[in-house]
Each structure stands twice: as structure tokens, then as C-alpha cells.
Amino acid sequence: MPQPEIIVIGSGMGGATIAAALAPTGRQILILERGEHLRDSPEARDATAIFARGHFRPKESWLDGQGRAFNPGNFYFVGGNTKMYGAVLFRFREADFSLNSHMGGTSAGWPVSYDDFAPYYDRAEALYQVRGALGADPSEPPHAGDYPHPPVPDEPVIADLAQRLRASGLHPSPLPLGVDLDRWLAGGKTPWDGHPDTCGGKMDAESCGLAEALKYPNVTLQTGTHVDRLLADENGRITGLEVTRDGLGETLSAPVVVLAAGAVNTAALLLRSADARHPAGLANSSDQVGRNFMNHNASAMLALHPLRRNPSVYQKTLTVNDFYLDGGPYGEPLGNVQLLGKISAPILSSQSGIPLRIAKWITDRSIDLYLMSEDLPDVDSRVTVKDGQIRLDWRRSNWEAHLALVAKMKQVMRRAGFPVVLSKAFDRRTPSHQCGTARMGWDSTRSVTDIWGRTHDHENLFIADASVLPTSGAVNPSLTVAAHALRCADAISEGWT
Ligand SMILES: Cc1cc2nc3c(=O)[nH]c(=O)nc-3n(C[C@H](O)[C@H](O)[C@H](O)COP(=O)(O)OP(=O)(O)OC[C@H]3O[C@@H](n4cnc5c(N)ncnc54)[C@H](O)[C@@H]3O)c2cc1C
């Protein structure tokens, strides 16, 4: 290929989206992705292979805060973590961008407002073909128009749940989703949440962002290429990328470099790129790279009536945001509730140790919910690199708000006619909603990038992934990552004109 003018590191939500937005500029764009295309296989719809055997998990271990090794649920494929995602494509709420008091402390908000992001959310929803409906969710921020597509239909048991919740005074609403239901189900009658997308049924970074980018002849995707280090000159310009492909090292370069390796790996790559002029790592004069790691506080909740069955296949179509903006003892935000993809016996058994036969009795009847509360930024919650290995010391915060949300939803579900309600927190090996490790801000001594994603220290290095999020909100992050990537693309192309 010709000499690249822009190199994008990572083909996940941020990388694929920024490549799609920059493609029409005609610039030569090279996307470097360490993973390969996810091909169809019998395991792709096999819950035991996915959840019990960890078939798609990486052959990699990270260290936790106590130095113990663990295998992270962080996925390296073309399309990044979105290949496994639940395809929930929420906008952050207006309040998420402002200063907020939480049960566990204060969140400083963002250096930009919802209004700054709104036009980019419109574009991101169009690119990822979001299915949804306005009007029912009390926390929904203003939209310029309707969702691009009508909502994914509720299965009968979920439609009945919506009625029951409405009767208890709540406002259930359709979950905004990037799923082509017919296409997904044609590949197998399974949920999509946590399952690999090998049929294009999910609107993910590969099937939407990357597919759009690769329509342009000036865009090239190079898979199996691990970026090991970035090189900077004495003026702070990024002059090269040391990469390994098929076991061989080489150095690539481009006038503009966009880092979109995901919040943990972006921080790790900047830290691994330390040199004599930048002993703390690149883009790190603020000492903020790797800090403020956030992941949501999340629990699964199974609610059941012993005499009613739940034959749903995919289930994941409903959300409840009645406790998103308030709900705490002094009106503090508690978080979001949404359906999980239908939990089956192998999933429950592998995650809880419950024998398969009992797990089957439970999951034949249960409605399965996902409860999510905000994790607040903390400078001591951080990614570091120890002897080349990633160390993730996640200091979870605002847990009291999460417990309050769980308690509230247990009451709600019992009132709605489910006498048995079980819950279990998601464990720390699942950094699904990782963010915050290179946050954006106005002040170069307290943040890593400006409000468009350009690093304060290196004028030709941009960050377009979840690392820049200053707070985690309490809804799924991908659409916000995509909206940020589109803003970042505008900053890059305007700098060129
Ligand atoms: C099981 C699961 C379910 C989820 N469900 C949802 C959901 O329903 N809704 C939602 O909004 N979010 C969901 N998420 C989170 C969502 O996937 C992430 O927020 C999103 O993918 C983040 O985008 P990103 O660009 O920051 O990182 P990623 O999408 O992870 O992309 C990073 C890319 O960089 C590549 N890479 C990493 N290091 C290097 C390197 N050194 N060299 C070259 N390439 C590299 C990776 O292979 C990857 O392709 C889920 C995540 C998981 C794991």
C-alpha cells in the first residue's frame, strides 16, 4: 500500500468508527489490528463453549491489585470487544455530563456538555442502525429525530413483564439496540449478549464502522499486527510505531496516529512507550495515563415464579431507568436496569457453580436482569505495566449505590409477581465497560487529551476509544465511544484543511 497518512491502532468501536468518518477525506488510512477476523464455528452459538470453556477468551493473563494473575474477558478480534457485546447502544444521559453527587462521592462531570455530543450521537445511531423508540424513558435526553429503526420486538414473557412493571408505577421502555433480529436468529436461536457475532446480525464495529470504512479504496486493514511501542522525537511528534507481525518486528510511520486499542491496552501501550525523554510513558506529563480506570458496578438478577416458565430466546429488549437520575436516600442516582440475554443452564452453572440440573430448573423459569451503577473516577484505580505485563488495580467505588439499586429492584420484582429473586455481582475479571485511563479535559496537568481527543503532549497523536471518558455514567459505553470517535475525526480533518 502507499505510505499511510493516518494510522489507526485498533479496529474496535473507536478505531472502526473513526476510520469510517475519515475515509471520505481520501487520506491513506492504515488500520492496525492485533486480532484476526472472527470466523463462524460450532462454538459461536454454544453456551458451554463460550461461558464454561471460555473458548473465545484471550490466551493472556493480567495481574490484579494483589499481583494475582487472571484471564481477562477482553476480546481481541477485528471489531474488538463489540464482537461479543450485547449491542445496547445508549446515549449517556444529559446529567452524566454535569457535576453529580452520588452515594459514594462526587463525579466532576465532563469538560463538554450533552449538547456538544448530541449531533455526534445522531450520526453514531445512524452508522450503527440503532433500533429504539422515544417517549417512554424518563431519563432519555433530547434527540434531533426518531431512532433510525423501530425497536426490536419483545417476546411474550417480556411484554408481560413490561405490563407488570407499568402496573407498579415504573416506566419500562425499549432498549436501544444494534441488532438485525432476523439475521441474528437465522444463525441460531440464541441470545446475542456475550455471544460472538459471526453472521453480521449485530451492528458491531466490524459489520458497521469497518464495513463503511473499507468501502473506500484509501482504507486498508492489516490484521495480526500488534503495536508494541510508539516512538516520539525531541519535539514530541510521534515518529514511528514498532509493531510485530507473524513474529517479525518492523517500524511504521504516518503524520497522524490514532490510538484506539481499548481503555486498558491504550494505557498499557503509552506506558510501554516510555523513553529517556518520557520516563513515565508517552502522553503522560500529567501522570494521568492508566489512572481513573472505571468499569461499571454490575449484577445479574434472576427473578422467577415457580409455576411460570420463560421460553424466551433472546429476551434482551427492555430497560428501566426510573432510578437512573435519583432513587437514593437523598435523591442520588442509582443506575440502569436492562434485560440480560436469556440465561441458560450452562451459563448459570458455569458462573455460579450451581449443578446443571438445578440451574436448568431455575433458568427455565427465570427472567434475567442486568443492573448497572456508576463507578466514579479514582486516581488510584489504575492500569500499570509490570515487567511487560498488564496490572489492573481496579478500585471499585459507589458500591453503596449499586447495593441500593439491587435492593430496590428486588422489591420491584417481588411486587411484580416474582416471589424468588436471586442476584450476583459480576466479578472483577470482566472489564467489559472499561474506560477513563486517558481522560479528556481542558487542563493539561490533570488530563491526557483535549476535548477532541488530541493528546496534550503530542500534537499528532489522538485517542479515539473508551480511555478518554472522564466518567462512566451508568449506561453501556459504546455509543458514546463512537460519538467521541466521530468528534475526533472532525478535529483531525479540520486540522488538515
Ligand atoms: C461481553 C461484553 C458485552 C458488552 N456489551 C456492551 C453493550 O451491550 N453495549 C455497549 O455499549 N458496550 C458493551 N460492551 C463494551 C464495549 O464492547 C466497549 O465499550 C467498546 O468495544 C469499547 O470500544 P474501544 O474502541 O474502546 O475498544 P475495543 O472495541 O475493545 O477495541 C480495541 C481494539 O484494539 C485492538 N488492540 C488492542 N491492543 C492492540 C495493540 N497493541 N495493537 C493492535 N491492536 C490492538 C483490540 O484487538 C481491539 O480490536 C461489552 C463488552 C463485552 C466484553
TrEMBL record:
This is Choline dehydrogenase. Belongs to the GMC oxidoreductase family. Residues 390-485 form the Glucose-methanol-choline oxidoreductase C-terminal domain. It comes from Puniceibacterium sediminis. The lineage of its organism: Bacteria, Pseudomonadati, Pseudomonadota, Alphaproteobacteria, Rhodobacterales. Residues 200-297 form the Glucose-methanol-choline oxidoreductase N-terminal domain. The keyword ATP-binding does not apply. Pfam families: GMC_oxred_C, GMC_oxred_N, NAD_binding_8. It comes from the Bacteria. GO terms for molecular function: flavin adenine dinucleotide binding; oxidoreductase activity, acting on CH-OH group of donors. Its cofactor is FAD. Residues 134-153 are annotated as: Disordered. The keyword Nuclease does not apply. Keywords: FAD, Flavoprotein, Oxidoreductase.
